């Protein structure tokens, strides 16, 4: 039986364990002495806000490097909690609990962008928060994100701000149909968005979305969806993965392939844009830029994610340094690792739907020796819920893709 290393406490319990590493904190190694902040070295405790699979893979990378990890989220028995040293369950609005959490760690990061401003500000009083809250502020609101990027000259999907059905009617005249209406905040995996066709009534669509503030985007008939995942250190150095080619099913990422098969100048432009975005926003940590590549060869930014990204999961098995280790290195002020790709790779997500007829046949997927299984320890396999992923390596992106898809199909075979 596997030992569960996590110690769980409720946030209401003020007696959080004291870090055994306080000695080096006293030496001041996590705050600037002069100029550059000093590195946060293995043995220190890293704090993560949010406890899903991204936090879990961050914690695994951190523990591999000898760090301790504390996780704070409203959930118990979470994917990150399973592998962290300490799982703290509390509301993000419980600022006393957030302060107690931040006091015990040497740096705070997060695994999702919808962290409330006061939570991040409170944490920042006790430990550096990386990336800085200013990055979250921009990326947790679609309208702010697109306006910031457009103002800085980056290519984005054409958009308009919409606050009522009258504005929606005018925006549809300006942008044309089809279009996509999205809530300005709290959207992910296609949640909070509606596709509008010429026969739809703006009043009905506006009521259907049920929000106060939205963004209308032109519907892009794209050739492919691409992402570039990049890490940026405290010194401004950047490592990157991508472009990665992504295919979605029901708005949820289904398949990622790296390297994407692309004209080399488009690939270079995507990487240049991602690096410029990171520098512009002064990101310390990991950020993913999602693009649409239009049929006439233009790159448009769809959205940003200021953290490791689902499309970057294949870097765990396919690259010298994965996106999660880069996150650890970046937030700790360490040099970034090599982003070199070891072999073409493809990743397929495993959603809860795969459990429809019982436990998937893991042994059938693993019969292919180039396939790696990652499960997130979630107990309830709900439809659409990300339960894990498979990564396959191959001699070419096509071979890796065929292997990954065949391995996933084998999970369901009777
Ligand atoms: P999002 O949550 O905005 O990343 O949207 C999820 C998915 O919906 C994207 O990856 C696309 O496949 C699709 N989508 C979102 N916005 C658009 C758009 N403006 N045009 C075409 N497809 C879109």
Task: Give the gist of this structure.
The chain has three domains: 7-129, 3-Layer(aba) Sandwich (Rossmann fold); 158-218, ATP-grasp fold, A domain (Dna Ligase, domain 1), CATH 3.30.1490.20; 222-411, ATP-grasp fold, B domain (D-amino Acid Aminotransferase, Chain A, domain 1, 2-Layer Sandwich). The protein is 29% helix and 26% strand.
Ordered list of secondary-structure elements with their pairings:
Blueprint: E1 7-10, H1 22-26, E2 45-49, H2 53-64, E3 68-73, E4 86-89, H3 95-103, E5 107-110, H4 117-124, H5 133-139, H6 142-151, E6 159-162, H7 165-175, E7 179-183, E8 193-196, H8 202-209, E9 214-218, E10 222-232, E11 238-249, E12 252-258, H9 264-281, E13 285-294, E14 299-305, H10 315-318, H11 323-331, E15 345-351, H12 362-365, E16 371-375, E17 386-393, H13 397-412
Parallel strand pairs: 1-4, 2-3, 2-5, 3-4
Antiparallel strand pairs: 6-9, 7-8, 7-9, 10-11, 10-13, 11-12, 12-15, 13-14, 15-17, 16-17
Bound molecules: adenosine monophosphate.
Output the strand order for the largest sheet. Answer: 14-13-10-11-12-15-17-16
The major sheet is characterized as: 8 strands, antiparallel
Number of discrete helical segments: 13
CATH fold assignment of the largest domain: D-amino Acid Aminotransferase, Chain A, domain 1
Shape: globular
Name of the top-level CATH class of the largest domain: Alpha Beta
